[in-house]
Amino acid sequence: MSKIKKVAIVTGASQGIGEGLVNGFRARGYGVVATSRSIRPSNEPDVVTVAGDIGDPETGKRLVAAALDRFGRIDTLVNNAGIFIGKSFTDYTEEDYRLKLKTNLDGFYFATREVIPVMLAQGGGHVVQITASTAEFASSLSPAFIAMLTKGGMNAATKSLAIEYAARGIRVNAVAPGIIRTPMHHPDIVDQLAAFHPMNKLGEVEDIVRAVLYLEDAAFSTGEILHVDGGLIAGR
User: Fold this and answer.
1) Predicted model pTM
2) Strand partners for 11
3) Residue 137 three-state SS
4) Short-list 87, 86, 83, 116, CA closest to 101
5) What is the mean pLDDT of each run of 10 residues along the chain (236 residues)?
6) CATH code for 7-234?
7) At residue 229, what are phi and psi to the nearest 5 degrees?
């Protein structure tokens, strides 16, 4: 059994924000269970990787089993896995719709459902969702109906779970990013994307990592939606 004192599960962990979160938790001495469809085995003894589709209920079960087998506990779950498909409403296909719901909502539900009982048995824990400011800020320049449907649902569910478990030692929060510089955005459109924010720049992965770790330390905060979006949520 590892001597690691705290353990985090990070979904969507193979690149971008997820990879940054794995590194951020490891820098704090956490053991980490990291998952994505394409994630590779880790050479670090305190990082366990689980390859799988987060929308599959079995993946959530495997994450919990891996954490308990290697570390014996789960302190934090970061529901980071998600995809964005920006289109006009009538251009979305059924495939777009099903894929977004499976990754964004099913993944959040199945992973959290498996983790909460472990945290209750331990007497506490912390669940954090990575949502999006676009869930609350509609723009005619960037239609994002399914993002608003799924990420907005996660924001609402965050508050619901926070209240349900507030007196039982489990905190539930969310970080709502603007557009973050990750491999999913082609370098040629960076300036165009930056202009979407009042601060006229993209966010960096480290901005989101710092926000999650802030909430990790914020013992009196639950039900919080922390916007890290270059001022986008404040208006244009």
Assistant:
1) 0.94
2) 35
3) coil
4) 83
5) 81 95 97 96 94 96 97 97 86 92 94 98 97 84 85 96 98 95 77 86 95 98 97 86
6) 3.40.50.720
7) -145, 25
